Amino acid sequence: MAIMPRPRRSRAGFRAAALVLALLAAGPAVAESKLERGKYLATIMDCTGCHTPGALIGKPEMARYLGGADVGFQVPTVGIFYPPNLTPDRETGLGQWSEQEIIDAVRKGVRPDGRMLAPMMPYPSYGAMSDADAAALAAYLKSLPPVSHKAPGPVGPAEKAPAPYLTLVVPH
Fold first, then answer.
1. What is the span of the domain harbouring residue 141?
2. What is the value of pTM for the model shown?
3. Tally of domains in the chain
4. For residues 84 and 17, which has the higher predicted lDDT (pLDDT)?
């Protein structure tokens, strides 16, 4: 009985198969790491400090995480600005915004309707954020559970804050 030689497999074929398997296995991990990076950025940028109800008075309501403030910033001669809902709620949050529109707001201070964000939003500093970090932050915000909460919104300099909302006066 003759023994047949084993077919010789190329190392390049093994390498290609290993690469494909590694990429397939990494798919969810890559997406997960992007969301983890976005969460990290939202944390160090202190989005909660302004955009979570109660946070500006030291009592953040984490059940409404990033759901829009109930305390506004009053800039004399300019008006009162309430940090909006950053969750993907379609009616009261960013649910109808694209990731690129979120990136433009964070980095350039421009809303999809063309209006500039309030002067206390530190978009000039956030403008230095890398493309990858900006995309991670936008993806993270889009991944949050929606919170239905409409922050009031901007109030002119001659108007009063709507009851029962509070305001913090920001020196001009």
1. 47-94+130-169
2. 0.79
3. 1
4. 84
**End-to-end CA separation in angstroms for the chain:** 96
Tens-place pLDDT, residues 124-153: 999 999 999 999 999 999 999 999 999 998
49-53 long-range contacts, Cβ below 8 Å, gap at least 24? Answer: 50/83, 50/120, 51/83, 51/84, 51/85, 51/86, 53/149
Q: Name the 3-class secondary structure at 116.
A: strand
Helix (H, G, I), strand (E, B) or coil at 80: strand
* 78, part of any domain: yes
Please determine, for residue 2, whether its predicted confidence score (pLDDT) is greater than 70.
no
Residue 43: per-residue pLDDT: 97
**DSSP for 145-162?**
PP--------B-TTSPPP
Asked, for residue 116, whether it belongs to a domain, the answer is no
Residue 84 falls within a domain, yes or no? yes
Residue 140 within a domain = yes
Cα separation, 79 vs 154, whole angstroms: 7
Q: b/e string for 129-162 if b means 16 or more Cβ within 10 A?
A: beeebbbbbbbbbbebebbebebbeebeeeeeee
Q: Is 71 helix (H, G, I), strand (E, B) or coil?
A: strand
Q: Is the pLDDT of residue 64 over 80?
A: yes
